[in-house]
Design brief:
- It contains six helices and no strands.
- The termini are far apart.
- By secondary structure, it is mainly α.
């Protein structure tokens, strides 16, 4: 046991000496936070984004082409089964930009998924919108 403590104390002293002498280099972080680098994601193979329309298809359940910016910020765009716009329940939504909304997507994805009936839990989000936003986030939140 005493040898283990000596090893720990010795490691701490070595680390302290290394840092004090300026030889310590912090590890580089290779993971990129897409919300911090949303401006770097201007181009994408995704085909849609904050300013580029999501093409309405039977698969995604949209009835018209809208950009994610329009879906999030416009009180006129209603893609939910209950015909409510995002801004109807979220007063902050009308003031979002691409970077700020990109930071909110993970929380959105953790919300319950709407089943489209009267038994939906409070705050449930449409499954089609969750798929669209998940793909957008994974692509780096492109324009």
């Amino acid at each position: 046991m005493q040898n283990a403590w000596m090893a720990i104390v010795g490691s701490c002293l070595l680390l302290t000496t290394t840092v004090a002498c300026g030889e310590f280099e912090p590890p580089t972080i290779s993971r990129v936070n897409s919300a911090q680098n949303a401006d770097d994601s201007e181009d994408s193979d995704l085909g849609y984004g904050w300013k580029t329309d999501v093409e309405a298809t039977e698969e995604n359940g949209l009835h018209a082409d809208y950009s994610l910016g329009e879906i999030v910020t416009s009180s006129k765009v209603k893609i939910r089964a209950d015909e409510k716009a995002c801004t109807a329940c979220h007063s902050w939504a009308k003031n979002q930009d691409r970077e700020s909304f990109c930071k909110r997507v993970n929380a959105f994805l953790k919300m319950p998924t709407a089943k489209g009936n009267s038994n939906d839990s409070f705050g449930a989000k449409p499954a089609n919108l969750k798929r669209i936003l998940r793909d957008w986030k994974e692509a780096g939140c492109p324009n």
